[in-house]
Write a structure and sequence with these properties.
Oligomer: single chain
Number of domains: 1
Strand order of the largest sheet: 4-3-2-1-5
Shape: elongated
Structural class: mainly beta
CATH topology: SH3 type barrels
Number of helices: 0
CATH class: Mainly Beta
């Protein structure tokens, strides 16, 4: 899938492989051979939102509760599509 397109993935279970920033705190030495690196992340979940710029995954998805028929989600993450390197649909 090409990044930055709306792919109609809503309500599908996916694994996204994407690149994230890497942060550190505290003092550290920067040696001559120091190299900065981004993190490669694998996130798995159900797509609950998608537009041309971002995709939102939910790690937990409940279809109904007693007395409530609306789906509920927990553990969500919004990922910019420009960061996504690979999308695997289950």
């Amino acid at each position: 899938m090409k990044n930055n397109l709306k792919n109609n993935l809503k309500n599908k279970d996916v694994k996204l492989i994407w690149v994230d920033s890497n942060a550190a705190s505290g003092w550290r030495e920067i040696t001559e051979d120091y190299k900065a690196a981004a993190c490669v992340v694998e996130s798995v979940g159900r797509v609950i939102y998608e537009d041309y710029d971002v995709i939102e995954l939910a790690c937990s998805y409940a279809t109904s509760f007693i007395g409530n028929d609306l789906p509920q989600v927990n553990g969500t993450i919004v990922i910019p599509k420009v960061c996504i390197k690979e999308t695997i649909i289950f």
